[in-house]
Amino acid sequence: EVQVVESGGGLVQPGRSLRLSCTASGFTFTDHAMSWVRQAPGKGLEWVGFIRSNLYGGTTEYAASVKGRFTISRDDSKSMVYLQMNSLKTEDTAVYHCTRGSLSAGGFSDVWGKGTTVTVSS
Amino acid sequence: DIVMTQSPDSLAVSLGERATINCKSSQSVLYSSNNRNYLAWYQQKLGQPPKLLIYWASTRESGVPDRFSGSGSGTDFTLTISSLQAEDVAVYYCQQYYSAPFTFGPGTKVDIK
Question: Which of A45, A61, A109 has the CB atom closest to B101's CB atom?
Answer without folding.
Answer: A61
